[in-house]
Write a structure and sequence with these properties.
Chain lengths: ~600, ~300
């Protein structure tokens, strides 16, 4: 699973981490800047309308009464308006979204590839993505057209002539539509769960006769076989002397097998839905000469998430883990680690054959190293390895993993090398982890749906705030733009940052700002070469510098929708960390509060009856 | 501002501008007005005279270009003043997907009323406006008159001290009009202040204490209805059972005192009174039909 951004501990993320401002100080800074900008724009408009002195008086009264009204907010009135929003949503037949969703699920099997090697990932990803887009669409339509509808039908007159604060109108709609969306989400979640379970549900039969497995003394110690081919796959079977055992993991699942009569019964698939809990370490590299580096080499990919180590050289990927203890070895089978390897082949080799690699443990304090442990890597497959508790060091002396290779402070280094010349192993920091006990898959699905819920509430907040000033279609377009820019925020910020892309932590985007890009399109110039120095180029770049400043400002308030999604966690079978859920909820709260205040002032300064 | 003054406007003006700030319409020009507690005040004028603009400025639905409006001593844009105000708009702009009970419940909640108080007010108002049998029907199924009545009910949900009625009798049949006027007079007896704007002069004359007449955004006349309408130099007498001799004597008395007899004859009732009496009679005696006169022979 790709995890491009490190998930920080909650309070580090909230306040400050390694000298960088946390989310809360950034929120206040953005709020202060937006407030100042609003004051300036508000004064300019008021002064144009009423004159300098009266305009200033109007702005002062708007702000002072606004602060007072925000503090006079009544939960009962908000709830009354929320109830109205719920009734309005029902009147608009929002249940149709459920019908559409059920139809999508009903016909999904026609289009989902049944022979996918990881069907759970495919089906889970499909239902979660479909749910996300449908729910965001519903949120957009409900939020963008509600207030404009009230203005058009003038029902707003009978509301604002009651002691209702503008912020209550905004919050009432946000809460009401959020409740409607939540109900839809819950129903979709239940339908999705049933769909996924039923689609993945299958069993096999033991296909062939049992092959005896003999022990060292010649006694039968077990049996092996294979299952029938069902849903484009089969399993190898291992049974004990009582003919009880497992159809081994394949296509992301396994089956328990019990004896029945003269044969065996293969039970339903298990392990399809997982919620792995990784404990991540810190990744560093050695280059092909054995020199320490922050990153490995780039094999030519524009996407620099992973870097690579060359096979049959000293190049090594090194993970340092903290808090290693015997408690991690729950089953007595060794230290459980998970590993994802991207394999880059410079020659074809034998397709489908694993690329040889080696694992070595090292005590970071004593430099004691283990002997090399061989493993085979297939591209982009999650391998689960148990490192035995007793293993030889480089001298052949059998050592205990926890006593000898783990430092007194609980640190352990795990090193990976590729052994085959001309082949490369690619790693990112989250690609190797300690396997803590799996979390509940059901709870994990709930956490994933909570991230969809967060996106939905943010869309609703933006839509309602925008509709306080704009007409329905324009508010919808505005919100759609916000969503689209949010999904492409990194790219947008990359353009805005220009040469300072590293300071903003985004990849470099070639081609300059918006106007320069337009010039390049028209003149068919490539994005890498700089523009020829000329007066025109200076003008273009000057305009772009202003536009890029505006884009930078907008980027600060754009919600990063691509980062909110936790679909991949569920699809790849990883647990969503609680810190991630807490961070998403906090960001959601920030948007609701911010948009409520913006919506309040937009509504308050608008002439309702104009 | 005196405690008896409920609404005060000072040089209240409104100019509608386009997006570019260019003046389009000067809807109200420097209106100075005071409306006192307990009176029924009428805003009269032809279409486009600024009546509804004035109401909307008082309610804070529009912002004044110049001047100010104060309601209970507070600025018109102060939301807290709405605690004591009820407003019936020109059309009853209500949520048509709600029924009568739900409508009143919604507006009652906006006043932070407790559930018990809410239910009492809803039941009382629905009975008061005569919608008991239709309380569970959605407003989109209501007739114009029923919609007006539920609109009035929502305006009274908070037992307001000040009620603003914009064209309250517009679209109502004579019975509905009479009921609305009776309601206004009842509210006045309860000590409410009522401001109504209308271009139906007869309705205003029947209920208002004071009127202001607007034309092209300017205040043209302001005063008590009785004093404005009284024709000072004409005396009107109505009497029953006068014989021809008595009528002649009266003519002589007027002539002797150098008065000018303008009119003596049988007065006419109003069409409204006739209509209402016929409807009342029809409800009391259903099945009775009008007798059609044979105009040629003069017989029934």
């Amino acid at each position: 699973m790709v995890l491009e951004r490190e998930i920080l501990p909650y309070f580090d993320w909230l306040f400050s981490y390694q000298g960088a401002l946390g989310a809360l100080p950034r929120f206040f800074i953005i709020a202060a800047v937006v407030s100042l900008l609003a004051l300036v724009v508000g004064y300019v408009i008021s002064a144009a309308r009423y004159g300098f002195l009266r305009g200033g008086d109007v702005v002062y009264r708007t702000v002072s009464s606004g602060i007072r009204e925000l503090s006079e907010t009544s939960p009962r009135r908000i709830w009354a308006l929320a109830r109205l929003a719920i009734k309005e949503a029902r009147r608009r037949r929002v249940e149709v979204a459920l019908v559409v969703f059920v139809i999508i699920l009903a016909f999904a099997n026609w289009f989902l590839s049944a022979d996918n090697q990881d069907p759970a990932k495919l089906y889970i990803s499909f239902v979660l993505t479909a749910t996300t887009y449908l729910v965001l669409g519903i949120a957009l339509l409900l939020s963008a057209f509600s207030l404009p509808g009230d203005f058009k039908s003038k029902t707003i007159y009978t509301v604002v002539t009651k002691p209702v604060r503008a912020v209550e109108i905004i919050l009432g709609r946000v809460i009401g539509f959020s409740i409607v969306g939540t109900v839809l989400l819950v129903i979709m979640a239940v339908c999705s769960y049933v769909f996924v379970i039923r689609s993945l549900s299958h069993t096999h039969e033991v296909d062939e006769g049992l092959t005896h497995v003999y022990g060292t003394s010649g006694e039968i110690v077990g049996y092996t076989s294979r299952t029938t081919l069902d849903l484009y796959h089969r399993h190898d079977v291992e049974l004990d002397t009582e003919k009880k055992g497992y159809a081994l993991r394949n296509y992301g699942h396994y089956h328990e097998i019990d004896p029945r009569g003269d044969g065996q019964i293969v039970h339903e698939a298990e392990g399809l839905l997982r919620a792995r809990r990784p404990q991540w370490g810190k990744l560093t590299f050695l280059d092909r000469q054995g020199v320490a580096k922050e990153r490995g080499i780039n094999v030519g990919s524009e996407w620099t998430y992973r870097s690579f180590i060359e096979g049959n050289t000293q190049a090594t990927a090194i993970w340092t883990f903290d808090n290693i203890s015997r408690a991690l070895d729950r089953d007595g089978e060794g230290l459980p680690i998970g590993l994802i390897v991207r394999v880059f082949r410079t020659h074809k080799g034998v397709i489908g054959k694993q690329i040889s690699g080696a694992i070595q443990l090292r005590n970071p304090e004593t430099n004691l190293r283990s002997d090399l442990i061989s493993f085979g890597a297939l591209d982009n497959k999650i391998e689960e390895i148990n490192i035995k508790p007793n293993l030889p060091d480089t001298e052949g002396v059998v050592r205990n993993l926890y006593d000898d290779f783990v430092s007194p402070t609980g640190q352990l280094e795990i090193r990976f090398q590729c052994l085959e010349r001309g082949q490369y192993f690619g790693f990112a920091q989250p690609d190797c982890y300690l396997r803590l006990p799996d979390a509940s898959p059901t709870l994990n699905i709930v956490k994933v749906y909570s991230s969809i819920w967060v996106q939905m509430v943010i869309v609703i907040s933006i839509g309602v705030a925008a509709s306080a000033l704009l007409s329905g279609p324009v508010a919808m377009l505005f919100t759609v733009s916000f969503i689209l820019l949010g999904f492409f925020r990194e790219f947008f910020l990359g353009i805005a940052a220009g040469a300072d892309y590293a300071a903003y932590g985004v990849p470099k985007v070639y081609g300059g700002g918006p106007v320069e890009s337009l010039v390049r399109i028209v003149t068919q110039k490539n994005v890498i070469s700089p523009l020829d120095p000329s007066f025109g180029a200076s003008v273009v770049q000057g305009i772009d510098s202003v536009l890029q400043l505006m884009m930078l400002s907008v980027a600060q308030i754009l919600p990063d929708f691509s980062a909110f999604s936790t679909v991949d966690f569920a699809a790849y079978g990883f647990a969503v960390p609680p810190e991630r859920v807490a961070q998403d909820m906090t960001v959601c709260l920030g948007y609701v509060v911010g948009m409520a205040v913006i919506g309040y002032f937009l509504l308050r300064t608008r002439e309702v009856a104009k | 501002m005196s405690e008896d003054v409920v609404i005060q406007t000072r040089a209240l003006s409104k100019v509608y501008r386009d997006f570019w700030g260019r003046q389009k319409v000067r809807a109200l020009k420097a209106l100075d007005l005071e409306i006192n507690r307990g009176e029924v005040f009428g805003l009269l004028g032809p279409n486009g005279s600024g009546k509804t603009t004035t109401i909307k400025l008082i309610l804070g639905l529009l912002f004044p270009t110049e001047g100010e409006a104060l309601v209970f001593g507070k600025r018109a844009t102060d939301v807290s003043k709405n605690e004591r105000i009820g407003y019936l708009p020109e059309e009853s702009y209500l949520y048509r997907f709600l029924n009568a009970e739900e409508t009143l419940d919604f507006y009652a909640r906006l006043f932070d009323m407790s559930p018990e108080t809410r239910q009492e007010r809803i039941d009382a108002l629905i009975k008061q406006v005569g919608l008991d049998t239709a309380r569970k029907r959605q407003l989109q199924e209501y007739s114009k008159g029923m919609t007006r009545r539920i609109g009035l009910a929502q305006a009274l949900i908070n037992d307001p001290d000040l009620i603003l009625l914009d064209e309250p009798t517009s679209g109502l049949d004579p019975i509905g009009t009479r009921e609305m006027k009776d309601m206004i007079l009842r509210l006045k007896q309860e000590g409410k202040t009522i401001v109504m704007c209308s271009h139906l002069l007869a309705d205003v004359q029947d209920v208002c204490d004071r009127i202001a007449i607007l034309h092209q955004g300017e205040l043209k006349e302001l005063g008590r209805v009785d004093s404005l309408l009284t024709v000072a130099d004409v005396t009107q007498i109505s009497a029953r059972g006068l014989s021809s001799d008595c009528q002649n004597e009266i003519r002589d008395v007027i002539s002797r005192h150098h008065g000018e007899l303008l009119e003596m004859g049988n007065p006419t009732t109003t069409l409204e009174e006739l209509f209402l009496s016929i409807v009342r009679d029809s409800e009391a005696r259903p099945g009775r039909r009008a007798k059609v006169e044979d105009t040629e022979s003069g017989t029934d």
